[in-house]
Amino acid sequence: MIYLDELEYKKIVKQAKAEFPDECCGYLGGVKNGEDISIKKIYPLTNIDHSNEHFSMDPKEQFDCIKSMRSEDLSMVGNYHSHPESPSRPSEEDKRLAFDPTILYGILSLQDKEPVFNIFKVDKEKNVEKLKYKLV
Questions:
Q1: Alpha-carbon gap, residue 65 to 27, rounded angstroms
Q2: What is the C-alpha radius of gyration for the chain, rounded to an integer number of angstroms?
Q3: E strands, 34-125, where?
Q4: Which sequence spans correspond to the domains of the chain?
Q5: pTM of whole model > 0.85?
Q6: Three-class DSSP category at 45
Q7: Average pLDDT value for the chain
Q8: Topology adopted by domain 2-135
């Protein structure tokens, strides 16, 4: 099971709304315990593309985030980004750029009145699996 800290989820929503109409992005810091993954903290990053259709994370910020996670005894368990005007599912570009089948890919859609957040795995063949998670 995947557990997502509710306060951290709310931070993703706040970031996505603040950066609208651009996509927001960031890392998911957490702890793996067997089959369970607990997402403890989000690490917002700058979308250097400033686009509502794709994102690129700032490389220096990525490096700094990984250092911060390690100092907090967390691992980079995944990343997230927003879809300002499309559903919460990986686009063809998202699948193409999903290089690591061991991490989580979170997507927050702002398409509807209420935000929709889903978490996915993308395997090496680019097959997508929607995962269940629980806010804690």
A1: 8
A2: 14
A3: 36-45, 75-83, 104-109, 116-122
A4: 2-135
A5: yes
A6: strand
A7: 96
A8: Cytidine Deaminase; domain 2 (3.40.140)
